[in-house]
Amino acid sequence: MTPPDIFDRNLRRLRRDRAAPDYAAHDFLRAAMLDGIAERLESVTRTFSEVLDLGCFDGSFVAPAGARIVRSDPGAVFANRAQGVQADEDQPSFPDASFDLIVAAGTLDTVSDLPGALALARRALRPDGLFMAAFTGGNSLSTLRAVLRDAEGERPAARIHPQVDVRSAGDLLMRAGFALPVADVETLTVRYRDIWSLFRDLRGMAATNLLPGTPPLRRDTLARAAQAFAARGDGDSRTGERFDIVFLTGWAPDESQPKPARRGSGVASLAEALKRRD
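RESULT FIELD:
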């Protein structure tokens, strides 16, 4: 039996299509993710020939020099503009061992089957291929979450989707079969003059609520949320909102990669080392 989707797939595609025309005015979060991925790629000495930009949005990821790039996105407009493939990240779309680098920036946080998406990425990599991803997680949108919860009173609806923390993200990499997994997090704080500016950014980057069956916000609830958001402002009448960017790096297993030492194979004694320090 197939489990129900966490996110509304059709709504996800529609939101991306609606965001496409003005996406460049709201892409600061994905731009920060791509900068972080580029910095991490700089430390990798190997070359790449076949690259997949998974969940490509406007196709702004620049492939390494000399590499051929394939782009895919769940939204038809983004996929067409990038001359790519329309496909959900958690559904099979590419043959096994097709790429030696897969990058997914700003897209995996709204995938219904994140473990499945990671497993598919692992299968699409050649041996010793590299997977790099970045998405919002952790305590992102903590201010908005708090003011909406307070504004709705005793029975608030789930309006911000569950966030993956960095430890869980690392565990998911291991479960998907990646070797040498690394997960880390960077926090970006953006200051908004009002809640409506935040809403415009979230709509513009296709990051609004995709949970199925969520009732619309009432006007009085919105008014209370806006007032509470403004009350959290600083001396410049701006309120900070938090975005935690989770970065993932993992390699498709290969015999050439370093292996952890077998448990119990060490030749040094911890007790003797401690004695020498006394």
